[in-house]
């Protein structure tokens, strides 16, 4: 669906699991059935391999920097922040390049460089070396992510694009969970050799994923831009002035398709970036809240992360169905807003409760939070594809990805300034932030749907 194509009728329902099929096929069988498309099958294969490596690295990275490389806590924070900051630039850059060069070759190159960079972490022995490697990894990881999104935007249409994103996210969660288990081996052994062996293995897995990526077909690349034909005079001679003007007009026409000239898409990106800070709540806010303000044991943090992974793996694909429709995307975004606001308040209420009640309340909050995450992702994907101009699909996906990266950078500061520093009132502020951004997305999507329906009616009547 293009930005001006009609949305399907509002049925008043949200995406649900088909009751005829629920509980019958296994999770593996459902995933296998969902990757019939050859491009998606290739992306799933590459993701499954490389994200195991990502899971390994995420598990050991902070402790590796601290105990093996010997960095101080503030140096570790700088290294990780620099990697994230580099990703902000690369998120747009990867999509921008994917509109101008072969997306397949870019994804292969970015993945290869990131894999090699991960392996070089085993040679890091000081702050500067670790910082440089982290920046390289951050650049090419986000560049690859945006390029992959551009590939999905071009290789699929309508609902199949959101389906592809949902399947890849499910596979990513499974693979990272498996990688985290392997990373725990290094933590259990505790030697420098064990850390370095697993980090090198993580990089090798990235490189092994290239075996799948080289099989991508050429249709995932952006259509080649035709060169402007030279202008000739009535006598057949070359008209340099007119040719230069034609080339300039072509460049102006191309720039009119830029996401930076699309206020609606930029607002969507900003709203999604703000709501995306909910990942920071799970990664920073909840662990610190549990450790400092509740009677629940710290082991509950790991249990809640596992619970989140299970919910995402089971429900991301089915609850993403239909979100290519603007009205459905609006609806799930609105539901996500209320769920996330509720989750913040429930998290806050765990403080001061006896241990059993505290654990129960935290589990309820984590479940509500997980469904808010799943629905917000589904709605955001649908809108990011359907409201994008297909002429510069890569740049649009790059801008959207850049917004999420900025949100990830801001999340620790915002969560710390609200929930961690202010307690219950801070959680209320967080709830208000998520509710406002989620309902903003709901409003924007409904307005876009009405605009599309009006345009379709006008075309039909003419």
Give your account of this protein's structure.
This protein has 462 residues and is mostly helical. It contains 16 helices and no strands. It has helices at 27-33, 38-69, 73-98, 103-120, 127-155, 159-189, 192-208, 210-213, 240-255, 263-275, 278-293, 299-315, 326-349, 355-386, 393-422, 424-461. The longest helix is centred in the C-terminal third of the chain and has 38 residues, at 424-461. The protein is globular. The model is unreliable at 1-22 (pLDDT under 50).
Care to give the gist of this entry?
The protein is an all-alpha fold and 462 residues long.
Oligomer designation: single chain
First CA to last CA: what distance? Answer: 21 Å
Note the beta-strand portion: under 5%
Low-confidence stretches: 1-22
Largest sheet: none
Q: Which structural category fits the helices and strands? A: mainly alpha
What is the global morphology? globular
What order do the helices and strands follow?
HHHHHHHHHHHHHHHH
Q: What Rg, in angstroms, do the CA atoms define?
A: 23 Å
- Note the total helix count: 16
Number of strands: 0
What's the overall average pLDDT, rounded? Answer: 85
**How much helical structure, as a percent, in the residues?**
over 70%
